[in-house]
UniProtKB/TrEMBL annotation:
Gene from which this protein is expressed: potA
Lineage: Bacteria, Pseudomonadati, Pseudomonadota, Alphaproteobacteria, Hyphomicrobiales
Protein known as: Spermidine/putrescine import ATP-binding protein PotA
EC number from the UniProt entry: 7.6.2.11
GO cellular component, one term: ATP-binding cassette (ABC) transporter complex
Assigned keywords, A-Z: ATP-binding, Cell membrane, Membrane, Nucleotide-binding, Translocase, Transport
Organism for this UniProt entry: Bradyrhizobium cytisi
GO biological process: putrescine transport
Length: 369
């Protein structure tokens, strides 16, 4: 399958006074897996619909391999779409469902049969060709929907929350299947989800959207470890966000003072331009909080004491919810791998929390880039 590049330039969509998508520019490389991530109403589905030709922009351009398709009908864009609800024809066998796009394109019967068999092999379901959709599980139906999409070799595949109707275990399995198929085919995929873990697992890059605009665009690692705004830090994974003031700037490091504390500590500048006296937020991920008894030592940049409110074991991780003794500081969460035989915590226990300077990321509380 030939992969294609996609270029979005100042694309905008309004519904009356409501701006569903503010002027947005975005380049998707040939063969890339890009995920549009964000909460409901963030603009991700609007952007996907515009790319697919299911909606028409008020401004801007869409180019596929440098060909302007902004005003081309959906069937002329060489784009395949996989929906959440599978959209399979219940009265057709699986092989007829997959072959349907080829029939519409008047592909010869022999070639259509060959491509259909090939698509079934790609999704690892050659044995279900003669069955009907109702005879398949949800995961199998989703793989057939993907096979029907790839059978006519579209330049770009768009996926609109395709795993939303599946249970977690099946969803995890399907994530691996879609990644495998992407590697094998090398096609360009634009994937929509509101599930942050799904986006982190599958994407080459994530386009995190908020209020109809791009909040931050980058690799999963960029967004997770180097968020450019409080929204990004808070949306992508759990985070502890502490108010602080910059005392001084030293390269990419900052001398800071946490709110309501006198002792200085350090944070990573995160590529931003900060000034002494500036109020900021400092993000520390739960797994980077070092937990010990109050008064414990160690070479840590920051230290807070607090009372244990609750303990939650969620499979592989154990989370501790802690109320800091410092007045006005928000509740914190620490996380560590769940271990059998670990010393039990007691509700109300006084704990010390610390972190290393490299794990404290300074964030300006404004719009990301």
């Amino acid at each position: 399958m030939v992969s294609s590049s996609l270029r979005i330039h100042e694309l905008c969509k309004r519904y009356g006074d409501f701006v569903a998508l503010a002027p947005t520019s975005l380049d998707v490389a040939s063969g890339e897996f890009l995920t549009l991530l964000g909460p409901s109403g963030s603009g991700k589905t609007t952007l996907l619909s515009l790319i697919a030709g299911l909606a028409h922009p008020d401004e801007g351009r869409i180019l596929i391999d440098d060909t302007d398709v902004t005003h081309s009908p959906a069937y002329d864009r060489d784009i395949g779409v996989v929906f959440q609800n599978y959209a399979l024809f219940p009265h057709m066998t699986i092989e007829d469902n997959i072959a349907f796009p080829l029939k519409m394109r008047k592909v010869a019967d022999a070639e259509a049969r060959r491509r259909t068999a090939e698509a079934l092999e790609t999704v690892r379901l050659p044995h279900v060709a003669k069955r009907y959709p109702r005879e398949l599980s949800g995961g199998q139906q989703q793989r057939i929907a993907l096979a029907r999409c790839i059978v006519y070799r579209p330049a770009i595949i768009l996926m609109d929350e395709p795993l939303g109707a599946l249970d977690k275990k099946l969803r995890d399995q399907m994530q691996l299947e879609i990644k495998r198929i992407h590697r094998e085919l090398g096609t360009t995929i634009v994937y929509v989800t509101h599930d942050q873990e799904e986006a982190m697992t599958m994407s080459d890059r994530i386009c995190l959207m908020n209020a109809g605009a791009i909040e931050q665009l980058g690799t999963p690692e960029d967004l997770y470890f180097r968020p450019r705004s409080v929204f990004v830090a808070d949306f992508l994974g759990e985070s502890n966000l502490l108010s602080a003031t910059v005392r001084g700037v030293d390269g990419d490091g900052l001398d800071i003072v946490l709110a309501a504390q006198a002792a200085p500590s350090r944070a990573v500048g995160n590529g931003g331009s900060f000034a002494a006296g500036e109020p900021i937020k400092v993000m520390v991920r739960p797994q980077n909080l070092v937990v010990g008894d109050a008064g414990g030592g160690g070479q840590l940049s920051g230290r807070i004491s607090g009372r244990l409110l609750d303990v939650m074991i969620s499979g592989s991780l154990t989370r501790l919810y802690i109320a800091p003794e410092t007045v006005g500081m928000p509740q914190l969460v620490a996380a560590h791998p769940t271990r059998s035989g670990a010393a039990p915590y007691e509700i109300g226990q006084l704990l010390s929390l610390g972190w290393h300077a490299a794990d404290a990321v300074a964030i300006r509380d404004g719009k990301g880039i």
